[in-house]
Design a protein that fits this description.
Elements (H helix, E strand, L loop, with lengths): L1 E3 H6 L1 H9 L4 E5 L2 E6 L28 H7 L5
Parallel strand pairs: 1-2
Antiparallel strand pairs: 2-3
């Protein structure tokens, strides 16, 4: 469905309801499409999807060395 910005501003709930029902709404301003509002496709990633693909090192949570922190903070020469 196509709708103008003015129509969308006057009745936002009506168009949101249409999107919730599965419809895509294209918003136009001056005969030019400026936005598309559509339902999101919910896809859940299964837990453990990457199990066994990598190992988190034991020192993962250890503080970074001072020289590396300095580089992140732009303090290196």
């Amino acid at each position: 469905m196509n709708v103008t910005v003015d129509e969308m501003e006057k009745h936002p709930g009506e168009y949101l309801h249409r999107v919730l029902e599965g419809e895509t709404v294209v918003v136009f301003r001056n005969d030019r499409a400026v936005a598309e509002i559509r339902p999101l496709v919910q896809t859940l990633r299964p837990i453990g999807l990457a199990a066994g693909d990598f190992v988190v090192p034991d020192d993962f949570d250890d503080p970074l060395p001072v020289d590396l922190l300095d580089q992140f903070e732009g303090k290196c020469e």
